[in-house]
Amino acid sequence: MRYRAFVAAFLALCLGFLTACSEAPDAADGPLTYEQIRGTGLANKCPQLGEVSRGAIPIEGDGSFVIRELCLEPTSYFVKEESTNKRQDARFIAGKALTRRTSTIDQVSGKLKAEPDGSITFVEEGGFDFQAITVLLPGGEQVPFLFTIKGLVAKSQPGLGAINTSSDLEGTFRVPSYRTSNFLDPKGRGLTTGYDNAVALPARADSEEIRRENVKSFETGEGHISLQVAKVDGYTGEIAGTFESEQPSDTDMGTDEALDVKIRGLFYARVEPSEA
Predict the structure, then answer these.
(1) What is the pLDDT of residue 37?
(2) pTM of the entire predicted model
(3) pLDDT level of residue 275 (50, 70, 90 thresholds)
């Protein structure tokens, strides 16, 4: 009887394994449904091109082109940490994202413009262009920041006249406050709502520490990003590669000093002629 129970349990385990394998999403069967994607993390992934894609997409001076479906998928995070030794420079420390499957910027679009020197300029115009992310450092410190490329203006090297696997788009962008102006702290202090300052802590001009903690402000920083194109499909207009972005962290509406955060990852986009 013991052997029969063991065999029955073994067969049930094998049957469950085969059933699970048969229900796994198969991209070859067509677009995945919501039920197939939910809970898998696939929605946080950017599309990628084949291993070998070395075409080129000419960006002519009299033509009008746009980038659509720009997707940036972070894969690693680093936070700049000052050294305790004055003789050593500050260095970036690798961190772990606490926000698990909501980190990708997606569906970003903007205009492409050919410059007289043969370079190409990309101007971001809209899309899901920000994500709130928190990184955990080895020492236990949590660093929140708004991963974004709002208002990005990126330019390639001169003399290209096309997007190919030698193209690098670099530029700056705005980094809005991690908190919105309607956010209230535990004491009910805010920028456009709540109290201007806590009654027990009046804003004293002679105490910068108290003033920064007590009076909220909406600070906008500046970031820099580099998009390195590694794959180009000239037939479909798809491009893909890697990116590295550096931007300030959250300041808790002016309370804390911003830290430098570096984000590395993969990107994907489509280059199309403009309809306008």
Answers:
(1) 79
(2) 0.79
(3) confident
For the chain, the maximum distance between any two Cα atoms, rounded to a whole number of angstroms, is 85
Measured CA to CA, the distance from residue 156 to residue 162 in angstroms comes to 10
Two structure tokens written together for 169: 């788009």
Nearest to 153 by CA among 188, 118, 185, 111: 111
Indicate the pLDDT class of residue 271, thresholds 50, 70 and 90.
very high
Q: How far apart are CA 249 and CA 263, in angstroms?
A: 11
| Average pLDDT estimate for 207-231 | 80
Quick one: tokens of 23? Answer: 């229900």
Q: How many CB atoms lie within 10 A of CB 87?
A: 5
Tokens read off for 114: 């050919």
Q: Token match 């070395």: residue?
A: 54
Identify whether the C-beta of residue 123 lies closer than 8 Å to the C-beta of residue 113: yes
Contact 177, 146 (CB under 8 A): yes
What residue ranges define each of the domains in the chain, with the CATH number in brackets? 46-179+218-276 (2.40.160.30), 182-217 (3.30.2050)
Amino acid in position 19: T
Query: Distance (Å, rounded) from C-alpha 6 to C-alpha 16?
Result: 15
Predicted local distance difference test score (pLDDT) of residue 64: 84
